[in-house]
């Protein structure tokens, strides 16, 4: 049996790849702008206490812009 030492420390629910949704709760992104989840980063370790992946790369459908957001800001449509 595999014993994984690095898990989702932030307990945020990550969306599945190719899920279409919106980024809600941020003032920099319009909440009705649709995007699709394209990938996850290999690692989110910015600080020693931050282990696990909690963000995802999304591509906006209106202009093809690719940005990285936390999984908590993504809401599935």
Tell me what you see in this structure.
It is a single chain. This protein is mostly beta strands and 77 residues long. The chain has one domain (20-76). The chain has no helices and 5 strands. A hairpin with a 5-residue loop joins strand 3 (55-60) and strand 4. The chain starts with 19 loop residues before the first strand and ends with a strand. The model has no long low-confidence stretch (mean pLDDT 82).
Helix content: under 10%
Decide which structural class fits the backbone.
mainly beta
Question: Helix and strand succession?
Answer: EEEEE
Strand order of the largest sheet: 4-3-2-1-5
What is the C-alpha radius of gyration, as a whole number of Å?
A: 13 Å
Number of helices: 0
How confident overall, as mean pLDDT?
82
Tell me the span between the first and last alpha carbons. 36 Å
Secondary structure tally: strands: 5
Low-confidence stretches: none
Shape: globular
Number of separate structural domains? 1
Strand content: 25-35%
């Amino acid at each position: 049996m595999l014993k994984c030492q690095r898990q989702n420390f932030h307990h945020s629910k990550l969306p599945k790849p190719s899920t279409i949704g919106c980024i809600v709760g941020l003032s920099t992104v319009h909440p009705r702008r649709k995007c699709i989840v394209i990938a996850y980063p290999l690692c989110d370790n910015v600080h020693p206490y931050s282990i696990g992946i909690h963000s995802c790369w999304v591509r906006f459908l209106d202009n093809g812009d690719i940005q990285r957001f936390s999984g908590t800001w993504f809401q599935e449509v």
